[in-house]
């Protein structure tokens, strides 16, 4: 008897089942309708406390109208990549508008933040170069760095003294790397703390290194009118060479971008494979992003409201006895400890009408599971109060406070 050959795809089910056994599989939730402060998730009306839609712009009437109008005038697809036939007036206007908003010489828009990091980082450094990265940097930075053939070194999270040690040691080992790049998240998405970019940038300057900051969670949040971390620290663009960001978070739409010198943008668009080889934004997306920049400049109340709700939420949960970690931003991790407890807490919050997901191992250390909350400027006072009551009730039931 001939034994049947082993199935070439048998690992698909086997590896999935291993994830399920370890409770490491993703259980997807379904939103019916728009992402709003009060959303319908899995058929239940809940307060949305884990969306990146910080300012509520994903449903702002000006963005929605801009998208509809652009679909009517420009269609729903661009038809090509930017370097061939997919470079529309809307894309060009968006980049000019973004550069003005950021106070940079030029900006370049990518299809996503992930495409920006994975497309640009491996072009900035290559064989014979050195890249130095915060240990908690986002996965898209890690992938971008892996695509380069540069030597990699990691420094302890937000530790400028450790960055200095790493830079000094690396220089001793290979006395003259061609280029050095220091890369960091601006706001760290799991903890809500802000990178000490002012000190990082000065240290990098002393070592002749480029500085690349991924400000996905700082834009629309930090700095003058939500201009982001470079504005927050008042840093010169001579010290921060690449300010990367995304339209998918506070801006409420989708799309990545980098801002810096005209040299940077010309280099980036000629070299980033994600930019050159992948279709450009549909016109409604580019138009909605343009409208988001208008709203940020003309309606400062959204950023102000985000911060006033954030302060109230942190004060109330802190007074209730919760450990809120090291956050200084609208990302508030409610520290729980064990992964299983974090899952129970999230389930209980959902029953109490609050949608906030647990962040567990391996995304964070085993004993650092948490409910990661993100404030939303569109919440009413009454909705915020309800969320605080639900957290306090669930926390007491689980013996956390
Ligand atoms: C979300 C995020 C990205 C990816 O941005 P997208 O535009 O959603 O692809 C990159 N970096 C950080 C730090 C992020 O939080």
Fold-level CATH name of the largest domain: Aspartate Aminotransferase, domain 2
Q: State the helicity in percent bands.
A: 40-55%
Average of the residue pLDDT scores: 96
Kindly, what is the distance between the CA atoms of the first and last residues, rounded to a whole number of angstroms? 65 Å
What is the compact description of this entry?
The chain folds into 2 domains: about 20-50 and about 300-395, Aspartate Aminotransferase, domain 1 (Alpha-Beta Complex), CATH 3.90.1150.10; about 60-300, Aspartate Aminotransferase, domain 2. The chain contains 14 helices and 14 strands. The chain has helices at about 10-20, 60-75, 90-100, 115-125, 140-145, 160-175, 195-205, 230, 260-270, 275, 285-300, 300-320, 340-350, 380-395; strands at about 30, 40, 45-50, 105-110, 130-135, 150-155, 180-185, 210-215, 240-245, 255-260, 330-335, 355, 360, 370-375.
3D architecture notes:
The protein has 401 residues and is an alpha/beta fold. The chain has 2 domains: 19-48 and 300-397, Aspartate Aminotransferase, domain 1 (Alpha-Beta Complex), CATH 3.90.1150; 61-298, 3-Layer(aba) Sandwich (Aspartate Aminotransferase, domain 2), CATH 3.40.640. The protein is built from 14 helices and 14 strands. Strands 4-10-9-8-7-5-6 form a 7-stranded mixed sheet, sandwiched between helices. Strands 1-2-3-12 form a 4-stranded mixed sheet. A 3-stranded antiparallel sheet has the order 11-14-13. Helix 2 (61-74) runs antiparallel to helix 11 (283-298) and helix 4 runs parallel beside helix 5 (139-147). The mean pLDDT is 96. Pyridoxal-5'-phosphate is lined by residues 112-114, 117, 138, 140, 185, 189, 214, 216-217, 246, 248, 256.
């Amino acid at each position: 008897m001939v034994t049947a050959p082993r199935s070439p795809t048998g690992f698909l089910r086997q590896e999935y089942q291993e994830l399920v056994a370890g409770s490491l599989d993703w259980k997807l939730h379904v939103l019916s309708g728009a992402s709003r402060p009060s959303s319908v998730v899995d058929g239940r009306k809940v307060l949305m406390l884990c969306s990146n839609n910080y300012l509520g712009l994903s449903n702002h009437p000006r963005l929605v109208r801009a998208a509809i109008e652009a679909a009517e005038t420009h269609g729903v697809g661009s038809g090509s990549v930017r370097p061939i036939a997919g470079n529309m007036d809307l894309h060009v206007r968006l980049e000019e508008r973004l550069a003005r908003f950021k106070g940079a010489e030029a900006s370049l828009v990518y299809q996503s933040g992930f495409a920006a990091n994975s497309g640009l980082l491996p072009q900035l450094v290559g064989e014979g170069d050195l890249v130095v990265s915060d240990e908690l940097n986002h996965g898209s930075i890690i992938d971008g760095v892996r695509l380069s053939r540069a030597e990699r070194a990691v420094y302890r999270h937000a530790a400028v003294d450790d960055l200095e040690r790493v830079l000094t040691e690396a220089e001793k080992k290979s006395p003259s790397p061609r280029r050095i790049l220091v890369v960091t998240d601006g706001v760290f998405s799991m903890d809500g703390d802000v990178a000490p970019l002012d000190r990082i940038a000065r240290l990098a300057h002393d070592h002749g290194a480029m500085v690349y900051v991924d400000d996905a969670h700082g834009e629309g949040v930090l700095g003058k009118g939500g201009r982001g971390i470079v504005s927050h620290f008042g840093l010169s663009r001579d010290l921060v060479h690449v300010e990367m960001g995304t339209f998918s978070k506070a801006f409420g739409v989708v799309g990545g971008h980098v801002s810096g010198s005209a040299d940077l943008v010309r280099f980036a668009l000629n070299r980033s494979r994600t930019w050159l080889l992948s279709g450009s934004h549909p016109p409604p997306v580019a138009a909605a992003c343009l409208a988001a920049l208008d709203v940020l400049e003309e309606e400062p109340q959204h950023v102000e409201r985000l911060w006033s709700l954030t302060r109230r939420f942190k004060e109330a949960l802190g007074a209730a006895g919760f450990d809120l970690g090291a956050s200084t931003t609208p990302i508030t991790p409610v520290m729980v400890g064990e992964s299983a407890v974090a899952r129970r807490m999230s389930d209980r919050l959902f029953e109490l009408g609050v949608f906030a997901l647990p962040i567990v191992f391996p995304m964070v250390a085993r004993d650092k599971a948490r409910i990661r909350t993100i404030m939303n400027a569109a919440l009413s006072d009454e909705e915020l109060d309800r969320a605080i009551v639900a957290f306090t009730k669930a926390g007491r039931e689980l013996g956390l406070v």
